[in-house]
Amino acid sequence: MAAISGRPACQGSLDDALDTGLTDIVRRTGASTGALYLIEDEEPTMRLLALCGLPLEFATPWHRLPLAVSLPLTDAIREDRFVWLGCQDDLVRHYPRLAAVLPYRIAFAATPLTGARRCWGGIVLMWPADLRREVTPRQRCRIIFGARRLGRLLDEAPGPATQRDRPRFIPVDPPGGSVQPGPAAAEYLERLPEGALNLDLEGRITFVTTAAARLLGRSADRLLATRLWQVLPWLDDPVYEDRYRTAVVSRAPLSFTAVRPPDHRLRFELYPDISGISVRVTSHREPTEPGLRESTVPRAPVTRTGRLYQLIHLSAALAETVSVRDLVELIAREILPAFGAQGLTLWAAEAGRLKVSGHHGYPADAIARVDGLPLDTDLTPAGKVLTSGVPEFFASPAEMAARYPQAPQIGGKQAWAVLPLIITGKAVGCCILAYDRAHSVTADERAVLTALAGLIAHALDRARMYDTQHHLAHGLQKALLPRDLPTVAGLDVAARYLPASHGIEVGGDFYDLLRLDDTSAAAVIGDVEGHSIAAAALMGQVRTAIHAHVTGGAAPDQVLARTNRLLADLDSELLVSCLYAHLDLAAGEVTLANAGHVPPLLRLARHHARVLDDIEPGPLLGIDTFARYPVTTVPLPADATLALYTDGLVEVAGTDAAQVIADLAGHLAGADHEDLEGVIDSLVHHTWPTGRPTDDIAVLLLRASLAPER
Questions:
Q1: 153, HSE (Cβ side, Cα atoms, 13 Å)
Q2: What is the pLDDT of residues 528-554, one digit of tens each?
Q3: Running DSSP on this structure, what letter comes out for residue 301?
Q4: Which of 284, 279, 277, 280 is nearest to 258 (CA)?
Q5: Mean pLDDT, to the nearest integer, of 245-253?
Q6: Which residues are within 8 A (CB) of 165 and not within 5 positions of it... i.e. 6 or more apart?
Q7: pLDDT tens digits for 91-102?
Q8: What is the mean pLDDT of residues 614-629?
Q9: Which tens digits make up the pLDDT trace of 63-82?
Q10: Does the structure show a pLDDT above 90 at 11?
Q11: 106 with 127: CB under 8 angstroms?
Q12: In 3D, which of 285, 20, 314, 29 has the Cα closest to residue 172?
């Protein structure tokens, strides 16, 4: 690792040092494959920077990884931990989508790449099937320590982490040195009756003996630098290519038999390592079954195995989308790059017209000009494909103009794939992929895109239904919350309600602020158990009860006690947490009563904030009819900020909520408090950096300004 010990002199040396660091970890841990990812600052995704031990083509579905999805590396980064999967069963159990695309006997590790200032990304490693199920302490230490050294290297980088546009394949020399045999070894192989080949990790032939060329029926010069399934039509079958992929990924020797026309049976034995595959070819002259003979009828182009695995990966991803926004983001993030496209318009059939549901790679004003095209017109390819149900592909503007001279062309695109979205004969919409340059879509790409169109149709139909229900549910939620908070002299206020990322049920989180007189106010925040219409209805009743008791002059403990008795009278099965704060701005203090709610935070001065966990809580509302709710009074001087929130802000799976709250207090201490709305953004992002909370969140910030005059 000497190459990464100092500050890199330039961007190129930084990239070289990162590559060297990755290969060093691979060698020292005995891994067969290593991948280095860096987090993109512009959006919550990671991109593949370097890969060794596997061809870049194999990693196409994972060139970019959203941080929000559940994968070993994203989980390792989000939870700041080392992830180990010792066998395929572990992969299937914890990450079924990944296991569907990696159906091999492998062990898997992932660890974050953390420096002193931030997490920069992560490292993924794989081992062959014969590794024991548990990682050794030495391997674990080498992986974690190597990742930390790379993190420190990135800390010291003078500029951006890297300017590399595309991932780089890093060749790794085999343990024995060069893959090319020396003169003596070549002479030895030439004397053997069986054939010998060497394939690099890309599947290209780098060495071939005369016997192998004879058995394969091609001269050596026609075989070198080619792939077997490309130069030999009788091996152009996904089954044979998949044997090669299995050997490369699992590093396990395997064999298969193929028939060279007309009836010559050949046996291929594959012996892989980190640099390539040695292939032994022998002749088997048993009679060939008629069904195994090479057909003389021209075959349709065969979809490459890589495309098949890519289709499995994309199908699983589409099944996980929930909203239309999720669907558009997925297509833009994974499907467009997979097919080399740059633009997307997703249309939904609605009231006889095509309405734009989402787009990517186009300016908004250009999309506005084509939104609402008639559904039944043959003047545009979108209308035509929905009528015929057959996709259309245009390699250039000239092809488009020849077929559809009146079709609007926007955004300067030069080629298009127009896919109808149809479910059991019903037109759901249309998906158009666009290219910045002239592009001819290949036969296998057309086959995959046509299959994907059906999956996108189902995903769009499901997502539109979800969005409708989600909009109705959260419209109800918003109606139950205060539309505007009152203005109170001497008090700056900001509030936010954030629904969970997924789910269509309305929640029970609520907040309120009541002006009592010129120098005092009451603030309340709470959470009704569950997500349902019943929870929302109970939330409305609780808010009304608290409002009545507060305006009636009840003391803080009595506000909660009386509301608690109301819940008992309602005989509701739902429980409610609630925190009530009476703010006396003239006296510079706040009196709090807590019914099982998460403790508030108090920032008294810059760089100093604490958790008010010394407030004695009472039970949740609705448990004990005769419960008492102790009160606690704390100072609230000028410029102090009181932060009230619901548990959705701090309850993160796999973490200790008390520690999350303590960390949140530390973050509140250092936040810029000039803009309270910005403080809320900062608090939410601190706990949920991906912007996808698993529960509803309500936040109410109260900052005391100069004490008002009596």
A1: 31
A2: 887 777 777 788 888 889 989 998 889
A3: P
A4: 284
A5: 82
A6: none
A7: 878 887 777 777
A8: 89
A9: 877 787 788 999 999 888 99
A10: no
A11: yes
A12: 20
Name the more confident of 124 and 349: 124
Please state the pTM of the whole predicted model. Answer: 0.52
What single letter denotes the amino acid at residue 466?
Answer: Y
* CA distances for 75 relative to 92, 247, 700, angstroms: 16, 28, 30
Which residues contact residue 525 at a Cβ distance below 8 angstroms, ignoring those fewer than 6 apart? 510, 511, 512, 578, 579, 597, 644, 645, 646, 698, 700
Dig out the tokens for 634 from the structure. 């704390």
* One-letter amino acid for residue 214 of the chain: R
Residue owning tokens 């879509």: 441
Task: Give me the residue label for tokens 């089954």.
Answer: 239
Element (H, E) at 205: strand 205-208
Instruction: Calculate mean pLDDT across residues 246-262.
Output: 85
Q: Using the structure block, give the residue that is written with the tokens 């608690």.
A: 564
Would you tell me how many other CB atoms lie within 10 Å of the CB of residue 468?
11
Identify which of 153-167, 223-237, 489-503, 515-529 has the greatest average pLDDT: 515-529
Question: For residue 298, is pLDDT > 50?
Answer: no
Q: Which two tokens stand for residue 178?
A: 């060069």
262-271 long-range CB contacts below 8 Å, 24 or more apart?
262/293, 262/294, 263/287, 263/288, 263/293, 266/215, 266/216, 268/243, 270/243, 270/244
Cα separation of 133 and 131, whole Å? 6
* 380-406 b/e (C-beta count within 10 Å ≥ 16 → b): bbbbbbbeeeebbbbbbeebbeeebee
Strand stretches in 87-179, DSSP E: 107-114, 119-127, 168-169
Long-range contacts of 128-135 (CB under 8 A, 24+ apart): 128/32, 128/250, 128/251, 128/252, 129/104, 129/105, 129/250, 129/251, 129/252, 130/252, 131/30, 131/86, 131/107, 132/86, 133/86, 133/87, 133/107, 134/84, 134/86, 135/84, 135/86, 135/107, 135/109
**Residue in the structure block whose two tokens are 């305006």:** 551
Half-sphere exposure of 16 (CA within 13 A, CB side): 11
Residue by residue, what is the 3-state secondary structure of 523-558? EEEEEECCCCHHHHHHHHHHHHHHHHHHHCCCCHHH
Which of 153-157, 246-250, 310-314 has the lowest average pLDDT? 310-314
Q: Please say whether the dihedral angle defined by the alpha carbons of residues 636, 640, 644 and 648, taken in this order, is positive or negative.
A: negative
Residues 6+ apart with CB under 8 A from 86: 107, 131, 132, 133, 134, 135
Cα–Cα nearest to 55, from 309, 341, 360, 268: 309
Dihedral angle over CA of 473, 495, 541, 523, nearest 10: 170
Instruction: Return the SS3 of 397.
Output: helix
